[in-house]
Amino acid sequence: MLVSYKWLSEYVDLTKVQPSELADKMSRTGIEVEGIEVPKEGLKKIVVGDVKECTPHPNSDHLSICQVDIGEEDLAQIVCGAPNIKAGVKVIVALPGSRITGNVKIKKGKMRGEVSNGMICSLQELGYSDSVVAKAYSEGIFYLPEAAVPGDEVFHYLDMDDAIVDLAITPNRADALSMRGVAYEVGALYQQTPHFECKEVVEQQNEQIENYLSVEVENQTDTPTYTMRLIKDVTIKESPLWLQTRLMNAGIRPINNIVDVTNFVLLEFGQPMHAFDYDKIGSKEILVRRAKEGETLTTLDEEERTLTPENIVVTNGYKPLALAGVMGGLESEITDKTTTVALESALFDAVSIRQTAKIFHLRSESSSRFEKGINPATVKEALDFASAMMVELGGGQVVSGVLAASEYQATNVEVPITLARINDYLGTELNAHEVGDIFVALGFSYTEEKQQFIVSIPPRRWDISIEADIIEEVARIYGYDALPSTLPSGQALAGSLTKEQRLMRESKQVLEGAGLFEAISYVLTTKEKATDFRLKKANTIAVDWPMTEEHAVLRQNLVSGLLDDIAYNQARKNGNVAFYELGRVFYQADATLPIEENHLAFALTGLWQTKDWQTEKQPVDFFLAKGVLEELFKVYGIKQQVILEATDEFAELHPGRTAKIILNGQLVGFIGQVHPEVAKRYDIMETYVAELDLETLFSMRNAGINYQVVSKYPAVKRDIAILVDAAVTNAMLTTVIQANGGNYLQFVELFDVYAGSSLGENKKSMAYSLTFLNSEATLVDEDVTKAMAKVERALVDNYQVEIR
């Protein structure tokens, strides 16, 4: 929320408090300040000008030559291209040598042959966003009030010398989404009681509102309270400048005096309101109900909405007039011809408002407050305040009476707590008087007897209801930095890692030692990305009310998040990326609770080794990724048990460069190149990925690596070269060799592969080195020869190889 320092100063005394000091204190007591902006900073020599003459430029069909009084002896000639420039208006003038937004310097010059001594400015040229400039001035220059003095700096007229404090309001502190709520907070920090302006409604006694309207609420749960007043004979016009500037500084566009009042009260009280043109309601009845399936409503943004029973609507008894708490309808909007205003102030169900805002993508200032909560005690007070203010700014009269349906009585919440409880939690030695002063500063009444407090919480702090909330409030106001620092008491127990935790830490060491960097990706993603690259099929788990569509479903793989990270880096010219992630994925069977599994994944792209004076560049490839996996398997003690099996089952991976990772006959992961079509979708270069199901892998691994004494006897190596069909893989051949090599076979290593036309069509030559070792005696040639013969027969029988 954007808070005006000047506006806040009307409620609490801040004469001795600088904005930066206030921001620091608020941040340290629970409401973070994201920044402070003074709109006039960076601008200079911008003054009020009075346009005395305005004539068309002789050499242009859209420029005008203006003679402007800028408070000097002679008039200044300025060429202006704004379509709404005319004589007799007060304008914003940037003098020669001035600076406007973007640090642009204005110089004296000529435009189409005519001298221009400065520039007549729009609000956008002073740094205002298009979204907050009134539509009447959005395409031209801004008119200052008649009382503006030529030559004066414009900043105090537009409140550009104000400090705008940007508060990051968390959902639990929605009470600070109003100026009064912020004033209570600041008052507590500086031991002050805020003072607010009261407006008395003067009613027209000869007419009763019941003669004009009736209100009814169909469901009191949807609408705990709904009130309405009627103001007749109003004049719709532009709001005074002070009101416009307050709205603009808060990020809201001024519309007209009636609509601006509703937005002002929204900021003042945190109470969303809506004004209907009474003559356009179409009946003398207001009915608040759920929408009927298929009903339509054209909202103020001129979009036709098809409604559902999830939406609460305000109707005239038979058709919708507004989406309750979200946006009004176009048919009953306030226009220049409005003379009678029906003003609504209500409390709506937070869940329904959030659902409606999400369905229609219409999250507004009003809906965000209804979602988080509003002060139920000021619904009627805000209605009276706004009614009186409308009469002040638009004339007219308030018709006698208030229509109220399902009226809600707000009450204080009483929370008991002891002084000992507070001190035990905070480690402090506060006495009853000190704690009582904090309650007074917060505006909480209380009774105290024998160090037992009964604290009465006003409805404006609906976030407080239990002991822990009271303790937090005491800590905040007392000061977190004033709390004593103490060590925990009691016996300390030596901690240790589980086997799984130890293996996961060792995994990180291996991967980082190999040159990969850890990434942490979002757990929430899209449904499409969640179901890519997954090891098992299961139902996705969707968040009921996601913040964005891109973060709506819990992931079922880690690879898609890593690909997003790679895309982010490559878009910023970082093409050589090696990431890994250890995290959880989420599955759900048909009617069971979600299952969380630990997975490990990595992604490699670009160059693994860049070219320099002594090395050639080495691009990432399948075998490099496979080597990283093998280092992990060594740590897990499963290198000899793991089999890589070529596959085309993963649609997201290249069918000729992908393998399943099999352990004891069960799928535990995959490795491969991202399919070119998928890479194109992510906008990334050729990338290799792998993912392991650590839950399954750790449950199937052996107890660990057993220590063996280095043998006193020498090992014997034998080589074998075979000619085999190209379709036969290394894994197939290695499995046969290991199964038939006998008890003394220790290692099998492929050291040469050759394929060429001289070998024949679809043939390849593969050479293996077999290592034999007997740790209890010296091997003799006869034992090794027998083992090699058995291996050769098995290879011939299984794959019809030719021994070379």
From TrEMBL:
Q: What is its main location?
A: cytoplasm
Q: Which CDD domains match?
A: PheRS_beta_core, tRNA_bind_bactPheRS
Q: Which InterPro entries match?
A: aa-tRNA-synth_II/BPL/LPL, B3/B4_tRNA-bd, DNA-bd_dom_put_sf, Fdx_antiC-bd, Fdx_antiC-bd_sf, NA-bd_OB-fold, Phe-tRNA-ligase_IIc_bsu, Phe-tRNA-ligase_IIc_bsu_bact
One GO molecular-function entry: catalytic activity, acting on a protein
Question: Domain named FDX-ACB: which ranges?
Answer: 711-804
The cellular location(s) given in this protein's UniProt record come to: Cytoplasm
Q: Might you give the EC number(s) for this enzyme?
A: 6.1.1.20
Q: Which cofactor does it need?
A: Mg(2+)
List ligand-binding residues for Mg(2+). 463, 469, 472-473
Cofactor binding: number and manner: Binds 2 magnesium ions per tetramer.
**Keyword tags:** Aminoacyl-tRNA synthetase, ATP-binding, Cytoplasm, Ligase, Magnesium, Metal-binding, Nucleotide-binding, Protein biosynthesis, RNA-binding, tRNA-binding
Q: Where's the TRNA-binding domain?
A: 40-155
The B5 domain covers which part of the protein? 410-485
- Write out the catalysed reaction: tRNA(Phe) + L-phenylalanine + ATP = L-phenylalanyl-tRNA(Phe) + AMP + diphosphate + H(+)
> What is one process in the GO biological process aspect for this record?
phenylalanyl-tRNA aminoacylation
- A Pfam family found in this protein is tRNA_bind
Does the keyword field hold ATP-binding? yes
> Can you quote a single GO CC term?
phenylalanine-tRNA ligase complex
Family indicated by similarity: Belongs to the phenylalanyl-tRNA synthetase beta subunit family. Type 1 subfamily.
Q: Describe the protein's quaternary organization and the partners it interacts with.
A: Tetramer of two alpha and two beta subunits.
**Protein name (record):** Phenylalanine--tRNA ligase beta subunit
Which organism is this protein's natural source?
Vagococcus entomophilus
